[in-house]
Amino acid sequence: xxxxxxxxxxxxxxxxxxxxxxxxxxxxxxxxxxxxxxxxxxxxxxxxxxxxxxxxxxxxxxxxxxxxxxxxxxxxxxxxxxxxxxxxxxxxxxxxxxxxxxxxxxxxxxxxxxxxxxxxxxxxxxxxxxxxxxxxxxxxxxxxxxxxxxxxxxxxxxxxxxxxxxxxxxxxxxxxxxxxxxxxxxxxxxxxxxxxxxxxxxxxxxxxxxxxxxxxxxxxxxxxxxxxxxxxxxxxxxxxxxxxxxxxxxxxxxxxxxxxxxxxxxxxxxxxxxxxxxxxxxxxxxxxxxxxxxxxxxxxxxxxxxxxxx
Length: 310
Description:
- This protein is α/β, with parallel strands linked by helices.
- The protein has 13 helices and 8 strands.
- The protein folds into 2 domains: 198 residues, Aldolase class I (TIM Barrel); 40 residues, no CATH class.
- The chain is globular.
- The C terminus is likely disordered.
């Protein structure tokens, strides 16, 4: 959910538009029908937007482009930073009217907040740059403002703990961020990579399953925060072990659920052998992301792959 007109990206929704609330409520009601919970994630695409799409200057922490986009952005003034912070709060206040169960802000593989905490994208010399504490200041200020406006709503952060880009931060620096975030947020959902290191953002079959679990355990131990663990967790046995040994408190997954939308139902029923496990091939979920979301593990796509499809 995008919080400000300067941060829009094709296919994303505007959280600051009150007219969207009835549409969101339809989704919320459909999820609640099955006794499930639904959270909303807020972001601003920063230097990954394109001014020819937004008809506005591209905002970012500094005038450093994302290498996958190439447009040199405008470094935010202090006044614009306050405007950005307020946009997160106002979008949350508006969107939560749809009856959502919680919210999350994105400080992850893309988006302007991830660019503020980045060591290669944030070149500021004021109170919003120059040190790890300053880099994450905007995140903490947004969290505190959200907490003040909606104290009874669960608030989390999607945090990249290793950007896998030369010169940028890794787990040691992420730990500093996590400790400051954990003082305000209710949970941290772990993330890795960036658009510039997409091989670690959506790691393929060449990356071991559960490759982040050791680092996740460290974040959990040193912050004491509620942690959602991610990173090629494909099978119930690995997920259950991560929960049992205290590596994380919840397990997050995306491609595994694209491969088999009934993953959780089958795991709960003790039918792990019936799960269509994510291969990590990235062919139809990422390879065709902006055209058609599919999976080689799904029946129609398997036929197509074997040459039997129409």
